[in-house]
Amino acid sequence: MEVPKAYRLAHQVLCIKAFNFHRKSLIGYVELTIQPLLTDLKRIKLNSKQSRIYRVLVNDTWEATAFWYNDPTLEAVQDEELVRQCSLDVYEKAYNKAVKSTNADIGNGEVTIRLPQECFPLVADLQPIRINIEFSLEQPEGGLHFVLPPIDGTLAERGAHCFTYKHENSSRLWFPCIDSYAEPCTWKLEFTCDIEMTAVSCGDLLEVIYTSDKRAKTYHYYLSTPTSAPNIALAVGPFETYVDPNMHEVTHFCLPHLKGILKHTASYLHESFEFFEELMSSRYPYTCYKQVFVDESYEDSQSFATMTIFSTSLLHSNKIIDQTILTRKHMAAGIAQQFFGCFIVMQSWMDAWLTQGIAGYLTNLFVKKTFGNNEYRHCIAQTLKEINEYEAQVGGILLDPSTGHNQYFSCYQPQTMSPLYLEMYRKKSVLIIRMLEARIGATLLLQVFNKLQALAYTASQQKFASNTWSNILLSTNSFLKIISTVTGKDIHPFIDQWIYQAGCARFVGNFVFNRKRNVVELEIKQDNTAKGALKYVGPLEVTIQELDGSFNHTFNIEENKTKFEITCHSKSRRNKKKKIPLLTGEEVDMDLNAMDADSPVLWLRVDKDMNLLRSITWEQPDYMWQYQLKYERDVVAQSEAIDALRMYANPATRKALTDVLECEQAFYKVRIEASMCLAKVANTMALKWAGPPAMLNIFRKLFGSHSCPSIIRQNNFSKLQHYFILKAIPLAMAQLRNMHNICPPEVVRFLLDLFKYNDNSKNKYSDNYYRASLVDALASTVTPAVTTVTITGQSVNSDLTADTKSILDEITRCLNVEKLLPCYRLTVTVSCIRTIRVLQKFGHLPSDPTLFRSYSQHGVFRDVRLVAIEALVDFIKTDVNVTELYWLLEVVEKDPDKYVSYMTIQMLSKNPPFKRGEDSLLNTEALVSRLWKLMNCSFSHDSKLRCGVADFYFAMFGRYRPACLQVPDSFIVFNMNEKKKPAMINPAIVSEQMTDMFDDDDDDDIITSAPPPSSSSLSVIPPPLTVPSEENDEIDVENNSPKKDFVSSLKRPAESPPLGPPVAKIPTLVRHDSQNVGGEDSNPVKLKIKLGSRPSMDDSTCTPVSTQPSVTMVTNELPPPILLPEFIRFSRASEDHSKPQLSPTKSTKPEVPGLFMGAGGDSQSRLSEDSNSSPEDSSQSRSQSTFPTSVKTEGLTSFHGLFSSNTTSGSQPSNTETMSGSSLGATGIQGSNDSSKHRLKKKKKKNKHKHKHKHKHDKSDRDRTRDSKERFSSTGVSSPMVPSVQSMTSVTSMSSLDNTRDSAPPSSPEFEVI
Fold first, then answer.
1. Distance in angstroms (rounded) separating the CA atoms of residues 502 and 271
2. Taking Cα atoms as reference points, which of 294, 28, 343 lies closest to residue 165?
3. Cβ 1267 vs Cβ 1259: under 8 Å
4. Per-residue b/e over 654-666, b at no fewer than 16 CB within 10 Å?
5. Is-contact 918 956, C-beta < 8 A?
6. Is the bond preceding 1024 in cis, omega lying within 30 degrees of 0?
7. What are the residues whose beta carbons fall under 8 Å from the beta carbon of 483, sequence distance 6 or more?
8. Residues whose CB is less than 8 angstroms from the CB of residue 910 and which lie 6 or more positions away in sequence, other chains included
9. CA 907 to CA 345: how far, in whole Å?
10. Least crowded by CB within 10 Å, which of 513, 577, 940, 1001?
């Protein structure tokens, strides 16, 4: 919703009086001409970060003494209680609120200026006022970047320069302004710099004035076209200037000594201008255009009004092939963004999909015209695949977030969004505009663009008024109106489905041919349950290739599962027809012996033109995929067939892939994909493969010498298709494996021979990318080393094999040659570093990060740094190295090159040292604090890095509080690892009445709404007592279960009187601070303990297991989490009831058995959430083994004696032993016959009560019987309840327990039954 404005910006002056490169500072002033829209305007809010404001003047006369600065984004989360949680969910809400409080789109800002009373009459008359602000900027952390190479000489000789960059509304970082796309105005720009420097900025250069001493000069620019502040840029440096000979309005700037390659790089630019102007029938909206190439750029290219800032890495000579394609795409995108993004801008972030999508759509049309339709369609298919994979992993991308969002970051503002999400947002916007082209037609869509340009140009030529320049702003509503005006079509349903909803359609389909009816029965399903899925309603095109031609059919999708019938135009012919007409009109010869003789269908495709955002899982026989690969002329269809044929490893697939690889008419990228697929098929057929390794003969046929095919010919890259195939086949062959999963030795020798006989002396193109691909191929041949394990358990690597030693020698030679004769962008060095890491990872070299650390230092070429950092990231994950992780975080925080900082954090996010829920030595509180500090306050001036750190944080810790942190006061700890209902407390001191009450508790669910973390993770949930889980289920803390509509706290009393003393209630989850237990000075906390249920039983032994029990606790006293002790379960040695059982009457002391019984113990007599036992089984198990369940005590009964403690070792019994089934019998753990009869008598009554609370997941009678038999057949059980390797103490009287409690200080709070 648009917020009414109190004023408008009409004009702005930006004057920088001086630059100081050594101190990285500047000083200047701005003057904003404000047009009041309200007569009671008293305050004006502006955007300014990092700058120091000295004075504010109004109309050059009145000084505004009352102005203040408030930037809550400097520290997103300021509340100490919230900071201690370190929750990403809390951070997201606080950061979104902070950014919103300074959002200029809704009239907010960091600087608030109170107008002096002298100007109130002007405001009352709605007269414009001028606000002059003097400011300085020193050591900027964002928005403006200074580059000072550490060499000797003057600033010009060193190539020192500075430039601005943006990440959505970043102009506030280097000068005060209204930093909003919705506030365009005219600009006057003045920059004073040293005599050796050149200042390049937006607009037309009016004049350059030198100072009287000839030591400085001032550049005066004027931008008459209304432009928003985020589109204003500046670059100052010793640039060399080159005026485009084909278009004099275009000027190129580069650093010293790069003008030669600049001329070649920019030689194609004029064709881009001609293409866009001709395409939209509209002239370029500005009077000039400038390209500036800088070092350490924030991105490869960033567009501003009348200028684009590029990275010097895009410059290339006429000998480079690969970079030419990428550079031309970047330059074309820069010009397209001048039309949409700089001239026509979005009205708010909700409309960003329009400007970004249209600019990307125009760029793709340029790619289609320049590089061909195959390149264009393949690019669209790859983009569609990337979006599908991202949405399936992360969730749907919402183009208009006004309808809400479902991410761990806010989508309402670009400063709070994940950088990777923003990248996919732009790509999806492009595909949406392309879908719109299919909906209304390409010609009409271009007419819409022309209409938008015409209206905006007309508005830009008018003088300022309150709404004169509104046509420069593009919103979704205005776009719909223009489409309706130009085309007469209503696309509201299209917008509602694809703009206001997130996700992609996901289709799963198959078909069968009905020979009797001569129809194809088609079934198409939608998978709406998958992550990022969108329920699609609308038309869907199906193309069927028959013997008589190709036919298109359009069906309307309305339900999740739809069946259609397609009547075939062809009859099945047993006399095979030779010529088959294709969709392109071409007739080809086909060998139809492989197809079904009764079916005329050759293959079938869904949405062949990619007019939908969708993923399709299509099922058809392998011969149809083979026909589609060989005879379909569409590159997307061929790529789909290659992907499907990976699952059909047979000779027919091998032949189809080989034919495509050898076909000179096939698109080169399809041939590359076929080579990779052929390698996978060959590996699957390793046992049946006959002849030389796959693709070896093909390579020799294409590139081998005529006299000696085993020796490669001299390089000749004049045929670009052969050049790319030459690079791809060695990479594919390197992935071949024999039956021992080792790369065949002849393949390694073949690759080494390519190095040996490589001759580029007569080639007019550079072979650096080819040599880099050969190094990458060598890396792909490496397999894990053979490791010998000694008797002591140490692993000893055997000596390097001959092939591995040859690979290492070749890598060393390439690195040494690179130091003497470096190639373009050091591509060979990059590949060598990557190969060394592979050798380390597979155990051939010692795993040592020293080499990568040296290549990661600032000053090394950026590409080399990035690959070395990538190796360090992998090293940290595999070797769990703390030092290197913190060193990389130093790079992220302090590296001068912001692009390297961002790429580092992105690599860590994609390959984190550990993922949430995993155990790792790196998962520490120190790491949490470091990352929290980075994203909460350190990167307050770089929102891209800030959100990148949040991505890394989310990958390791998730949205909520990290489990590695200590539990703060008043927090509740739930261990959600165990879903089963916790077992009963020690039956020796718990009465039958408590057993009933525990049984009733079993009907209450344990927390199951949130996915369980790892075995060691504890989910920490702050108060109040009813807390939401990760899926927002409410939890009742009293009974540790989700809230129900019925009252679950009512307990059913026992039917029979208990054997022990009457018990008022079970241990509850309450605090009791009034008195200590047992007269000891212990922590006065009473807790309700629910201990984890028994895992699956072992056959014979009773072994402690290290898994943790489910623990529910509340504490206000202890900062660290209370780790409750764990107990051992015991099992009987056999179920032979004929053995004599000892009666409790034979013992003079009350028996204290183990906490849990064996297969028939009472601990399994109650239902739990995941229990397989039924009420009948539970009662039966009670009757199988009985023992005393209560004892008479004097006063309170304590659990203190059952807890292991280091501080009470002197008082507790020391004769501990592991009790097997026989020892249980020897100590009288088996109950008497009287107790058994008592339990049998109680069985019927309890089952009647249990019937009312039977769990909905109870198994059938057959399953319950089988589970009961398995339980009774078990002879032992392992216990998860022992924190230390200490066994259960021998039978001890309650008096001895009381004595122990009184004689030694407790090691944990007292837990007692009241």
1. 37
2. 294
3. yes
4. bebbbebbeeeeb
5. no
6. yes
7. 440, 448, 489, 491
8. none
9. 32
10. 577
d(CA 634, CA 868): 40
The pTM (predicted TM-score) of the whole model is 0.75
DSSP string, 1154-1194: -SB-STT-GGGSS--TT----HHHHHHHHHHS--------S
The top-scoring range by mean pLDDT among 64-68, 616-620, 684-688, 1064-1068 is: 616-620
Give the whole-number percent of the chain exceeding pLDDT 70: 72
Helix-strand-coil percent breakdown of the chain, rounded to 5? 40, 20, 45
Average pLDDT taken over every residue of the chain? 78
Q: Which among 502, 451, 498 has a CA at the least distance from the CA of 479? A: 451
Long-range contacts of 1093-1096 (CB under 8 A, 24+ apart): 1093/978, 1093/980, 1093/981, 1093/982, 1093/983, 1093/1163, 1093/1164, 1093/1168, 1093/1171, 1094/980, 1094/983, 1094/1129, 1094/1156, 1094/1163, 1094/1164, 1094/1277, 1094/1279, 1094/1280, 1095/1278, 1095/1280
- Asked if residue 1032 lies in contact with residue 1219, where contact means CB atoms within 8 angstroms, the answer is no
Q: How far apart are CA 764 and CA 1128, in angstroms?
A: 78
DSSP 23-74: TTEEEEEEEEEEEESSTT--EEEEB-SS-EEEEEEETTTEE---EEE--GGG
Element (H, E) at 819: helix 802-820
Cα three-residue angle 345-349-354, rounded to 5 degrees: 55
Tokens of 183: 């506030």
3-class DSSP state of 603: strand
Of 1161, 1109, 1054, nearest in space to 1280 by CA = 1109
* Three-class SS of 220-263: EEEEEEEECHHHCCEEEECCEEEECCCCCCEEEEECCCCHHHHH
Mean local confidence (pLDDT), 888-914: 95
What six digits make up the tokens of 640? 């789909």
Residue 485 to residue 476: CA distance in whole angstroms? 14
Cα dihedral sign for 217, 218, 219, 220?
A: negative
Q: Which residues pair with 541 in a beta bridge?
A: 554
Greatest alpha-carbon span in the chain: 117
Residue 506: half-sphere exposure toward Cβ, Cα within 13 Å:
16
Cα–Cα distance measured from residue 775 to residue 993, given in angstroms and rounded to the nearest whole number: 75
Cβ(318)–Cβ(260) under 8 Å?
no
Name every residue whose Cβ is closer than 8 Å to that of residue 766 and which is 6 or more positions away in sequence: 317, 319, 320, 321, 760, 823, 824
Is the CB of residue 611 less than 8 Å from the CB of residue 557?
no
1159 neighbors 1245 (Cβ within 8 angstroms): no
Instruction: Give the C-alpha distances (Å, rounded to integers) separating 868 from 62, 602, 731, 852, 1307.
Output: 57, 50, 21, 5, 50
Is the CB of residue 1151 less than 8 Å from the CB of residue 1144?
Answer: yes
Judge whether residue 774 has pLDDT over 90. yes
Q: How far is CA 990 from CA 981, 1132, 1222, in A?
A: 18, 21, 24
User: Could you tell me which of 577, 622, 618, 634 has the C-alpha nearest to residue 600?
Assistant: 577
Of 338-347, 462-471, 702-711, which has the strongest mean pLDDT?
338-347
Per-residue CA distances from 520 to 3, 564, 567, 569, 582 (Å): 56, 8, 6, 11, 19
Would you place residue 917 in the very low, low, confident or very high pLDDT band (cuts 50, 70, 90)?
Answer: confident
Dihedral (CA of 146, 150, 154, 159) sign: negative
Q: For residue 686, give the amino acid letter.
A: A
Asked whether 1081 and 1307 are in contact (CB, 8 A), the reply is no
Burial pattern 1201-1233, b for ≥16 Cβ within 10 A else e, equals bbbbbeebeebbeeeeeebbbebbbebbbbbbe
CA angle 426, 863, 891 (to 5 degrees): 85
Query: What does the chain come to in residues?
Result: 1314
Phi, psi (rounded to 5 degrees) for 106: -115, 20
Q: How far apart are CA 285 and CA 454, in angstroms?
A: 10
Listing from the earlier edge strand, what are the strands of the sheet with 234-237?
Answer: 144-147, 161-164, 234-237, 198-201
